[in-house]
Amino acid sequence: MEKADLIKLALSARQKTYSPYSNYAVGAALLTKSGAVYLGANVENASYGLTICAERTAIFQAILDGHRDFERIVVATRDGGSPCGPCRQVMAEFSLDMIVTIVNEKGEIAAEGTVLELLPYAFTPKNFE
Ligand code: THU
User: Fold this and answer.
1) In a designed cystine with 55, which of 15, 27, 29, 87 is the match (CB 3.0 to 4.6 A)?
2) DSSP calls for the chain
3) Ligand 1 center to residue 73 CA distance, Å?
4) From ligand 1's centre to the CA of 24, what distance in Å?
5) Where does 3-128 sit in CATH, by number?
6) Reported confidence tier of residue 77, pLDDT bands at 50, 70, 90
7) What is the pTM of this model?
């Protein structure tokens, strides 16, 4: 799937967020290396710390379907905010070469780079080899 289509999907996933506490809606569209697409949105909770980010909802759904190699994730926020540290670590678990495309609410690209660029010197499964 083309990047432009993934951007549209991330923006549409952002409409499905449950974020009444922060009012900061995040959408994600994840493309696997085999061409499958998974969407994610942040899901908050009255017990704030239970919140899960958009990136991880998409990645975990893909994992449940047996995908572990990822090509690209598009993350959509109102201001082009970039993925939090824990989400970078979860991305690094599976695909250091995945491209992370960050867009604002208009779908304009705010930043783009690999997971390795977002999380240099990452701790990964390779550390157990
Ligand atoms: N959030 C994400 O979904 N992804 C990120 O990478 C950064 C933060 C969510 C969590 C919370 O629901 C809201 O944005 C404000 O922190």
Assistant:
1) 87
2) --HHHHHHHHHHHHTT-B-TTT----EEEEEETTS-EEEEE-B--SSGGG-B-HHHHHHHHHHHTT---EEEEEEE-SS-PPPPHHHHHHHHHH-TT-EEEEE-TT--EEEEEEHHHHSTT---GGGG-
3) 15
4) 7
5) 3.40.140.10
6) very high
7) 0.97
